Amino acid sequence: MSTCVPTRTEDPSHKPRKAGRGGPHSPSPPGGGPRRFRIRGSDFSASIAVFLIALPLSLGIALATGAPLQAGLVAAAVGGIVVGRFGGAPLQVSGPAAGLTVVTADLIQQYGWRVTCAITVLAGFAQLGLAALRVARSALAVSPAIVHGMLAGIGVTIALAQLHIVLGGTPQSSAVENVRALPAQLAALHPAAISVSALTVAVLLIWPRIPGRTGRIVRKIPAALAAVAGATTAAALASLHLPRVDLPSWSSHALPGMPQGPVLGLVAAVLTITLVGSVESLLSAVAVDKLAAARKVPDVRVPRADLDRELAGQGAANVVSGALGGLPITGVAVRSSANVSAGAVSRHSTMLHGLWVVLAALLLVPVLDLIPLAALAALVMVVGVQMVNITHLRSVRRNREMLVYAVTLASVVATGVLEGVVIGIAVAVAVALHRLTRTRIAEDEQDGIHRVRVRGQLTFLAVPRLSRALSHVPAGSECVVELDGSFMDHAAFEALHDWQTSHVAQGGSVEFTGRSGSRISEPASETHGCCRPWTPWRNHHCDGRPERATAHPLADGVSSFQRDTAPLVRDELARLEREGQRPSQLFLTCADSRVVTSMITASGPGDLFTVRNMGNLVPLPGVEGGDDSVAAAIEYAVDVLQVDSITVCGHSGCGAMQALLSAPPVGAHTPLRRWLRHGLPSLETMRSRHRSWARISGRLPADAVEQLCLTNVVQQLEHLRAHDSVARRLAEGTLRLHGMYFHVGEAQAYLLASSDEHVYDAVFDRVAPASSSLAKARV
């Protein structure tokens, strides 16, 4: 079965040629020649914006690690070009990142720069191996509290180290040592360095907040570039004597050397860079997907990230960067978000930004040598402080993960990144086990009804206390069991089920509810078995059909309704009986048993005025042999019920459409064949040379039956407009017509893109799933 998911292309400027009748479109030019390499203006402008942010940050991160400053430029260029070309996230920008600053600084101090380059190469090969094993999604299984805590810990460590340079001193070997040395550093301040750093921080904080038209104009220049440029200019005009950027000749640039040192230490170093860089890159790629999807302008569909390919691209870039004497590379959220905000639509913007870095490294060395190191340190310090993200902190607190976050942050600052993450994972596991075993069970009695309240996850560890509480419920009494938890294991289920069976047999009653008091399904009893009446489509699998309680399945279904559903809808149905029906929509669909109207529309009593017939047909008014029942329903819905809209819904595999294709009912004498004559206009429209075939979510129909099903929906909308009551309400602007197609095998609905006017080139668009209840609750 062919899928109906829209095809996405990495080149948004490329549009498929319009297909002829029944012919598939081809994404390639005639003759199968290659596509022209084209760069859109939005990609070009976005690459400039990202380059202006990446240039000072790359130098600052290199300074923070203690690596040669050129190593930051090498990593930025390789990250842009290599990952941009081979990565799986088109809009993600990669380069030297603050997340690896602490790790890299420790490696340089322990092994030296050339060995650190070799470790970067080995980490790249490790990432390529992980990509080949297709385990990229596994990195997303790490608790967000651990990731956010790790990044916050790295940010604190960076800020503490750079604070010494901002004050005119030299950072120590660890965060703890930096804290200890801070009083002495405060006693020996360097006014020139503090002045330049203060100016840099002030511009960074004020630049995005400049109001009015002036602010809109100046914000086209990135704050990082404005801050460093402003500080450099001020230092030059004031003739301040400060350490400045010193880019040596590229001929003396250090390349990797053979790894030397303890084998276990080297392996741990490779694993640290591999894991931290991979997790940060993959999380950043997921975040960039969300940013691109939420973007309104430009309205261009960008492919979702292929995480395994992105991991392979990161690995290739680390191999190249390390071999050329560059810093380790990861996906960078700040630069990536700037790329999305600037309007990038393809990977060309990322690759161009890498090219601009190469040109700057070759041609702008005299300009870069004017930058004070204090300005770069202030820039990186602000970046480190911003890594302690308030939004992440609120999210962690809301999800009750503050302990994991705080322990991970403190451990990273005190012991290092890898050790801190391991400690964070251990704490997260301990917290999860604690929550799993912490179950509170209480019982009370009010107005003769006994209540047993269970708070937390219900596992075998809580079964003894649960059984003790249930044993206190008197035989033959009414009991409500209130369950407030998201998990129940088999032992707890069996304990509840056995007690319920025994209590009901003794004349009592049992009702299971959630914390809000809403009734939930009780454990399946032996009477009903696995498959309940009229619900074989539910999400379960049975080896065989159980015997029904009676020989009449309809009676079984009605009995289940009276027991389970009627108590929940009785009040609403009583209200509808008193006030009468006021549906908002007439829903005209096929009589096919697979099309469950209430299920696919999530509607309930009083929502839809439904008309069903073979083939969801609307006979033209006055046609010979017409059926007034459909016309009467339309007139009643439009004139009496005053519905707001009418929807005609077809579906895949429609038997009426198959019958029309196989044997058009010419001169038919049976009731079925006479009825199908109302579908002949749809058949003629499909075969007409003056109308193109309908399309479904960016593709042509799978076969002639699907094409006729789609065309029939459009044709029946035309028939609706011929009815006087419908035409009058349409002219008044008080009625809307909609077309809908339901693909049964895929459980996917499609809406006709335009139904208000005569449609000659019909396109049915896929209906996306609504936001989940969990997402709404969190909002």
Automatic annotation (TrEMBL):
<keyword id="KW-0812">Transmembrane</keyword>
<dbReference type="GO" id="GO:0008270">
    <property type="term" value="F:zinc ion binding"/>
</dbReference>
<dbReference type="InterPro" id="IPR036513">
    <property type="entry name" value="STAS_dom_sf"/>
</dbReference>
<dbReference type="InterPro" id="IPR036874">
    <property type="entry name" value="Carbonic_anhydrase_sf"/>
</dbReference>
<feature type="transmembrane region" description="Helical">
    <location>
        <begin position="263"/>
        <end position="288"/>
    </location>
</feature>
<feature type="transmembrane region" description="Helical">
    <location>
        <begin position="222"/>
        <end position="243"/>
    </location>
</feature>
<feature type="transmembrane region" description="Helical">
    <location>
        <begin position="111"/>
        <end position="133"/>
    </location>
</feature>
<dbReference type="GO" id="GO:0004089">
    <property type="term" value="F:carbonate dehydratase activity"/>
</dbReference>
<feature type="transmembrane region" description="Helical">
    <location>
        <begin position="403"/>
        <end position="433"/>
    </location>
</feature>
<dbReference type="Pfam" id="PF00916">
    <property type="entry name" value="Sulfate_transp"/>
</dbReference>
<feature type="domain" description="SLC26A/SulP transporter">
    <location>
        <begin position="42"/>
        <end position="407"/>
    </location>
</feature>
<keyword id="KW-1133">Transmembrane helix</keyword>
<keyword id="KW-0479">Metal-binding</keyword>
<dbReference type="InterPro" id="IPR001765">
    <property type="entry name" value="Carbonic_anhydrase"/>
</dbReference>
<keyword id="KW-0862">Zinc</keyword>
<keyword id="KW-0472">Membrane</keyword>
<feature type="binding site">
    <location>
        <position position="590"/>
    </location>
    <ligand>
        <name>Zn(2+)</name>
    </ligand>
</feature>
<protein>
    <submittedName>
        <fullName>Transporter</fullName>
    </submittedName>
</protein>
<comment type="similarity">
    <text>Belongs to the beta-class carbonic anhydrase family.</text>
</comment>
<feature type="binding site">
    <location>
        <position position="592"/>
    </location>
    <ligand>
        <name>Zn(2+)</name>
    </ligand>
</feature>
<dbReference type="InterPro" id="IPR011547">
    <property type="entry name" value="SLC26A/SulP_dom"/>
</dbReference>
<feature type="binding site">
    <location>
        <position position="651"/>
    </location>
    <ligand>
        <name>Zn(2+)</name>
    </ligand>
</feature>
<dbReference type="InterPro" id="IPR001902">
    <property type="entry name" value="SLC26A/SulP_fam"/>
</dbReference>
<feature type="binding site">
    <location>
        <position position="654"/>
    </location>
    <ligand>
        <name>Zn(2+)</name>
    </ligand>
</feature>
<dbReference type="GO" id="GO:0016020">
    <property type="term" value="C:membrane"/>
</dbReference>
<feature type="transmembrane region" description="Helical">
    <location>
        <begin position="145"/>
        <end position="167"/>
    </location>
</feature>
<feature type="region of interest" description="Disordered">
    <location>
        <begin position="1"/>
        <end position="37"/>
    </location>
</feature>
<comment type="function">
    <text>Catalyzes the reversible hydration of carbon dioxide to form bicarbonate.</text>
</comment>
<dbReference type="Pfam" id="PF00484">
    <property type="entry name" value="Pro_CA"/>
</dbReference>
<dbReference type="GO" id="GO:0055085">
    <property type="term" value="P:transmembrane transport"/>
</dbReference>
<feature type="transmembrane region" description="Helical">
    <location>
        <begin position="44"/>
        <end position="64"/>
    </location>
</feature>
<feature type="transmembrane region" description="Helical">
    <location>
        <begin position="187"/>
        <end position="210"/>
    </location>
</feature>
<feature type="transmembrane region" description="Helical">
    <location>
        <begin position="355"/>
        <end position="383"/>
    </location>
</feature>
